[in-house]
């Protein structure tokens, strides 16, 4: 069977026979076959084209098949396809330098991982080892990855310095539309969420808390943009109690919000930054931790008990270098910001005026959530069947959507054009009208 002769039905059958899929009961799955892509568009094996308003799992920030990234990976594979992490490699060094160049003053080292989850694992490990404390505070509405057991299952010495992989505490973050704090203004929401965080720290025992781990803007949980003062307030509390602040930029980073790092738009500087996805638009699996000098220096004499076979893989490194270079050369961060302020901001607000099913729209850049409600007054979320019908209506009209709970996330590549963005909004408008 050659690629050209395969139909959607052939590929669906091959998939169903052998592939075990993420987060799903396997029986009723009908994964959409995709044959190819270019920029913000993908197509199936039967020739149907879709505007990719999902960026897959919100990672193809530079779009599909960017020639500079494809070219850099091809060149690297010819030169040296792989080399172990312990060696010095110029592509890896350049990838690390380019990432730190985008970080604030005082960040000069990168620890590379295979993706976002292991970036957070290693940031947490660093925070625990540097503080000698074990608890990690994060939010209920968050996603940080899908690992947790391998190092504590390990039998040799590497388990021992990591044997305190426990002690996770959750707090509510600010989310004015569904406030847990009875707040009616962003200021109230921010102040009360900070008060709650500080009380949890005090009651857990500040001397037991190693890190506060936050997505700068919670992504899969609903693109919940923090209110003014919240992140600065978290920084202040972390400093007061000697706690390390880890900002998870896996989904929000590298042009998604119209900034290099989403926190650039806020009055906050973290101690550790975790990244993946947009750093290379996902062409090769990669992630990492950008490490502030103080934390990096803590491991100058002391062993860092962490590592991965493919840390800083040359193909991943080549894709990072090309992706970041292309983003800078082509003004991709600025494009995302412009699309957010000129097209998605006003366009989604207009859709909210028109369709009662929209409870709230929020976001920045190419990172927007449309929250759908059964009743605007009670804000009751629409059910899964409604989201299912919306997805079907969007796909039928040639838009590949990203949905989560009762929300449609509007998250195309950061290279999306004004025309494509407007076309996507028109399709969403039509699909909402069918509900
Ligand atoms: N952190 C955030 C904010 C994410 O959105 C994700 C994945 O969606 C992760 C971490 C985990 O990344 P990975 O799936 O690459 O392990």
UniProtKB/TrEMBL annotation:
Gene3D superfamilies: Aspartate Aminotransferase, domain 1, Type I PLP-dependent aspartate aminotransferase-like (Major domain). Keywords: Pyridoxal phosphate. It comes from the Bacteria. GO terms for molecular function: pyridoxal phosphate binding; transaminase activity. InterPro entries: Aminotrans_3, Aminotrans_3_PPA_site, PyrdxlP-dep_Trfase, PyrdxlP-dep_Trfase_major, PyrdxlP-dep_Trfase_small. The keyword Ribonucleoprotein does not apply. PANTHER family: AMINOTRANSFERASE, AMINOTRANSFERASE CLASS-III. Belongs to the class-III pyridoxal-phosphate-dependent aminotransferase family. This is Aminotransferase class-III. It comes from Nostocoides japonicum T1-X7.
